[in-house]
Amino acid sequence: MPSAVIESLESIIVDLPTIRPHKLAMHTMQNQTLVIIRLRCSDGIEGIGESTTIGGLAYGNESPESIKQNIDSHLAPALIGLEAGNINAAMQKLDKIAKGNTFAKSGIESALLDAQGKRLGLPVSELLGGRVRDSLEVAWTLASGDTARDIAEAEHMLEIRRHRIFKLKIGANPLEQDLKHVVAIKKALGDHASVRVDVNQYWDESQAIRGCQVLGENGIDLIEQPISRINRGGQIRLNQRSPAPIMADESIESVEDAFSLAADGAASVFALKIAKNGGPRAVLRTAQIAEAAGIALYGGTMLEGAVGTLASAHAFVTLNRLTWHTELFGPLLLTEEIVTEAPVYRDFQLHVPRTPGLGLTLDEERLARFRRH
Ligand code: MUC
Ligand code: MG
């Protein structure tokens, strides 16, 4: 049987409404923009992927528009005619012709895996070596900007058994105000919930010394990216003195960043994100570096919709230990989906499908309605 080749690769920008504004230190999301990848192969199989970021260029080096432009002008033409099932060859070619661009590459790697899974009748997790669990515990982010509203939201999530881990987005307000907000939420939820914070690099080291101390003393489990990714010395010092563990997020923009952070002892937990490593296979290389260095793992998100969320989930279910669980709640922040069957969240967990590929089908009508023209 002649092997299938890649015939075309389309990138589609999709704008979807969110259930409420989502306040991060650097940006307040009023909606979310996805970049959906459709990879068509000569055997009639289509693979889908997603390359999504947060807040245009506010979070990372790629925006939805630059992702689409770089795929259309550079990455897609390089793939046409290549063997669709040889994911190593395809991704090596992309790495040769394009530096960085991990968000764009992540959507493409996901689409290649989805297509190959459908071709072989296997879920993506099995292409990645096999799953060791079927579901993942999922944290929820409290980011309404209002303490009372956040507490009510958390209590509701506990009651309906959807989440019992909460991440609070802080850093935009004065330090003392943020600390009061976090401590009030932890006090209200008590031992029923794990409460963590994400500062998104907004403190300087002097603020972080006090911030980490107060949060650690008040039962906050985990502190994500308290200071700038550029201040490596500060990250090393905080990792040594903070009473609560420090997690690296923005500090990891590539697998090589993960290696250098591990070598320097700059964090004791890594947030794994397919978008920031270049795909579900690439993120597992960062996981392996962390495992070798004794660094704990957390399954992160760029607030992708169903496609990017399940591409992440298929990678995360293959991991030996995910000490800090995941935050794969992106689809739950959206009021609309562009797939026919939404991912299943039940009993604090995301349940990962065992059907071929990612286990998703695009809903053509909704895709047509929400795509940007
Ligand atoms: C981030 O900085 O981790 C993940 C969850 C959330 O609410 O925002 C993201 C991005
Ligand atoms: Mg983060």
From TrEMBL:
Pathway: Aromatic compound metabolism. PROSITE patterns: MR_MLE_1, MR_MLE_2. It comes from the Bacteria. Signal peptide: none annotated. Its cofactor is Mn(2+). Residues 148-245 form the Mandelate racemase/muconate lactonizing enzyme C-terminal domain. It holds the Pfam family MR_MLE_C. Keywords: Aromatic hydrocarbons catabolism, Isomerase, Manganese, Metal-binding. Belongs to the mandelate racemase/muconate lactonizing enzyme family. This is Muconate cycloisomerase family protein.
